Amino acid sequence: MTLLSLLSHRALRTAGPGAWLAGLVALLLAAPALAQKPKAPAGFEGRVVRVIDGATLVVRQADKTEQTVRLRNIDPPEPCQPGGPASKQALIDLALGNVVQVQAPARGAAGSVVAGVMLGDADLSRRQVEEGQAWSVRTRYDRGPLVKEERMATALKRGLHGAGGAVPPWEFRRTNGPCPG
């Protein structure tokens, strides 16, 4: 309930000054609890046991539970798109079998886990973009947090930028729809 709705509540409008004072005191006492944001889920460590595509991997934690994690801030080629299998293979070569730290996991669309994933000092999202295996994720107003790395990979003709004419996955999906299966 917002302050405005509390102050405009019919019971307070028609009540006397004592009710106003009691309502204001209750609001002031509750304000710190209302202002606190829920804590983000804690990160975890685990071994990469499977790579699904150029931005999705399965991490097995010490308690043997497995968590599918999508790398934050990148958009790799679709699996059926030219460059998709190479992007997946690059992530396999980089991460499969290694222990990683999953940092600041959050729930993404459809309940998936989206997080930063570190292999030692290396950020896997950054590495995929630097090696030309993914694009920096775009927002409505900018080219994304890894745009410098993407431009460097394009200039150096790394990975999918090597042959030229690479189609970003958001354009591929708009034209062709999602990959089957």
The averaged pLDDT comes out at 84
Q: Which band does the percent of strand residues land in?
A: 15-25%
Distance between the termini: 44 Å
Strand order of the largest sheet: 1-2-3-6-5
Q: Which fold name is given in CATH as the topology of the largest domain?
A: OB fold (Dihydrolipoamide Acetyltransferase, E2P)
Please identify, by name, the CATH architecture of the largest domain.
Beta Barrel
Query: What is the element string, with H for helices and E for strands?
Result: HHHEEEEHEEEHEHH
Radius of gyration, taken over Cα atoms and rounded to an integer in Å: 23 Å
Structural class: alpha+beta
Provide structural commentary:
It contains seven helices and eight strands, in the order H-H-H-E-E-E-E-H-E-E-E-H-E-H-H. With 181 residues, the protein is α+β, with helices and mostly antiparallel strands. The strands form two sheets. The protein has a five-stranded mixed beta barrel.
Question: Characteristics of this structure?
Answer:
24% strand; globular; OB fold (Dihydrolipoamide Acetyltransferase, E2P); disordered N terminus; alpha+beta; five-stranded mixed barrel; 8 strands; 181 residues; 2 domains; two-stranded antiparallel ribbon
Task: Write the SSE topology.
Layout: H1 3-8, H2 10-14, H3 17-35, E1 44-53, E2 56-61, E3 66-71, E4 74-75, H4 84-95, E5 99-107, E6 113-119, E7 122-123, H5 124-130, E8 135-136, H6 147-155, H7 169-176
Parallel strand pairs: 3-6
Antiparallel strand pairs: 1-2, 1-5, 2-3, 4-8, 5-6, 6-7
Question: How would you summarize this macromolecular structure in one to three sentences?
Answer:
The chain has 181 residues and is an alpha+beta fold. The protein has seven helices and eight strands.
